[in-house]
Design a protein that fits this description.
heterodimer; A: 120 residues; mainly beta; 5-stranded mixed beta sheet; elongated; B: Lipocalin; 12-stranded antiparallel barrel; 1% helix; globular
């Protein structure tokens, strides 16, 4: 019974967990010239402790992943701040995708943002 | 460092790294507690300081700096001391998504300290000691102006000019009070980046007790530091902030024998607002030892 209560408590903690993802940069459809830096900045505000998040940057024309990183650190809030240097030789549609893990059972919330890499 | 970054890099055509959040928060140089002594010294010190950086009020990264330095002091007559040190530093930064470690030789520092007043009583105890030091930190250490984590590099890439005023006077039979003012004027590096100047004022009570074969020398103090604004001058001067103030409590434990000086020091910030409280310094600690060469 104790085991049952413990497991129940464990899942009850994150059952209604929610997270707000705020992407500060880039803005929708921003353009990045060749060799310029794409500034990626976002914060994630959870209603309770979250179970990590992942960030990816994808070249949507070719479905090539240009950058990906993730963490499983448990925190209520996260902040992310990085740069990517545009060295894609063609005009490319880019998608930034942030996925937050709300629970151990795989419940997630995702936000995406599109921008364009230019060859000059 | 590459082994930490490589998992991030795909296809070999992209680069990504963490931004530098903390803003050149580094301690000032000091003449130290033994300014009024008259022996030559050569020693080794090692210490650590740690920081947390915040963005939007959320913890973004943790930085830890480990530094070991070889230092020496040479008494040039009764009125002049020449001090020099060369550090080797490991800088670590951890964010949710990355780790970075940068190590190498830091910038060497040389200080010429002139003793203006050195009054002693009939027992040889210092009644008043006043010295004025001028120092130079040269940009010979490892640095990288293009790195987003340039603060982790052991070198700053720029010359620093130091001015130091040190006054010591007894306040009780076994205790003296040392007051030290240090101003660190920082020049720009070749990329136009300039760390802010640092002013610090430290008051330390220093005890002196005979213990075993030597003397036990404890110290307790408080230090105030003001960090100036970081600036970039590629298209005219552009101040970037990162400035602020810090108040530290300090404790020293030292043991002095005929040939050796053993030192330890901790500093705990009690109030700070550097970079609008987006950088917080944590505990700093240092231990060291010096071999003493008595003047003939």
């Amino acid at each position: 019974m104790i085991l049952g209560i413990s497991i129940g408590f464990l899942f009850a903690c994150d059952k209604n967990n929610t997270a707000e993802i705020n992407i500060m940069e880039p803005m929708m459809n921003d353009t990045i010239a060749l060799n310029d830096s794409l500034h990626l900045e976002a914060d994630i505000l959870g209603s309770d402790k979250l179970f990590g998040y992942s960030v990816s940057l994808t070249h949507t024309n070719t479905q090539t992943q240009l950058f990906s990183a993730s963490t499983e650190k448990r925190r209520k809030d996260y902040v992310f701040h990085s740069h990517w240097i545009n060295n894609v030789q063609d005009t490319a549609n880019l998608e930034i995708k942030i996925t937050v893990n709300l629970s151990r059972s795989g419940k997630t919330v995702t936000k995406t943002m599109q921008c364009v890499a230019l060859p000059n | 460092m590459l082994k930490y970054i490589m998992p991030w890099v795909f296809l070999g055509i992209t680069q990504i790294w963490s931004c530098d959040i903390c803003g050149g928060v580094s301690g000032n140089a000091s003449i130290g507690l033994f300014a009024s002594t008259q022996f030559h010294m050569i020693g080794l010190k090692t210490g650590s300081s740690s920081f947390k950086s915040y963005l939007h009020g959320i913890e973004h990264s943790r930085e830890n700096l480990w530094s070991t330095e070889v230092s020496c002091r040479w008494q040039i007559g009764k009125r002049l001391q020449l001090m020099a040190s060369v550090p080797y530093q490991f800088g670590f930064q951890t964010t949710d998504l990355s780790k970075a470690c940068i190590s190498g030789l830091g910038d060497p520092t040389a200080i010429l300290n002139g003793i203006l007043v050195n009054q002693k009583d009939s027992t040889g105890r210092v009644r008043q000691f006043l010295s004025l030091g001028i120092g130079l930190k040269a940009p010979f250490g490892k640095w990288n102006p293009k790195s987003e984590v340039r603060n982790l590099y052991p070198g700053s890439g720029a010359y620093n000019i130091l001015g130091m005023l040190n006054y010591t006077t007894p306040i009780k039979p076994k205790w003296t009070l040392q007051s030290e003012i240090v101003y660190n004027y920082k020049l720009s590096d070749t990329s136009g980046f300039r760390y802010g100047n640092v002013f610090s004022l430290t008051e330390t009570m220093i005890g002196n007790y005979k213990w075993g074969i030597g003397r036990f020398i404890p110290g307790f103090g408080i230090g105030f530091s003001n960090f100036g604004k970081v600036s970039v001058s590629d298209n005219g001067s552009n101040e970037m902030g990162y400035n602020g103030n810090m108040l530290n409590l300090k404790a020293h434990l030292n043991y002095l024998t005929y040939r050796w000086l053993w030192t330890s020091q901790i500093e705990i910030p009690v109030a700070q607002n550097v970079n609008n409280r987006n950088v917080k310094q944590k505990l700093m600690a240092q231990i060291g030892f010096s071999y003493l060469i008595r003047k003939k």
